[in-house]
Amino acid sequence: MNQLFQIFKVGSGDAAKISASPDEPHQHDYEELVIGIEGQLEHFIDFKNTVLDAPLVSFVTKGKVHRAIPKLINGKCDMWVLRFKSEFIPEITFQLYANYHNHAMLKMADNYCFKRLTTICEIIEGEMLQENPDLSVVRHLLAALFIMIESERNKTYPHENSLNHSKNSTLQSFLQILEENYHRPVGVEFYAEKLFMSARNLNLICKNILQQTVSEIIETRKLNEAKNQLTYSEKNISEIGFDLGYNEKAYFTNVFKKRTGQTPSEFREEMKKLLS
User: What is the per-residue pLDDT across 249-270, written as a single tens digit (0 to 9) for each?
Assistant: First the structure.
């Protein structure tokens, strides 16, 4: 995507075409928010397939492998799709990652709060249709949209309230360092030293925000990459394990099965069937 921001509608005709010939699972270089007013969304993400009826909200962070298929219910489908670069609203982009980590789909109540979301989308679209749209206005409206969604989430899932900004900043830095080093055989102490803090404090921050220890987050990142390679590459299992710092195939297989309930070979076969 070349623009910083896009907004468009997916209607009944669009949904019928997409359902008839869905895309392959893919990654984006942008963030994507879907607000479903009518219809149904089938979403393959985090290597799981979820089907949710509208009203709904779905958010896909940059780089996640997914496939979204809008579908008709009673011949109707009506969804807003908003796409934007991370740098468009950098002050909340990481917060979005923390909030939507491992749960990209949210069922919404058909109430006044949800109707406000659709109203804001209409205002954003109106601004973008201007000859010279004011992107600063769009940025504020998009931020307001996420604040309203988060408000509704907090009412439904109060235990997921995020912590203060300083802790979020630390976690953001950790995740950035992890992205550069997850393939290396390094552990918690390596990341704590990079952040000039103790392993204990880094663990506390990760547990409070993402409900995972540092080791679990590292392993999750490795396993997500393993799943990507098992699904989309022709590499053998030993090669994939070695790429991710596992020198022994048996150890990699044991770790993978412990976390996923399947061996790498079983997972590969399941993905072939699911995506065929």
Answer: 999 999 999 988 899 999 899 8
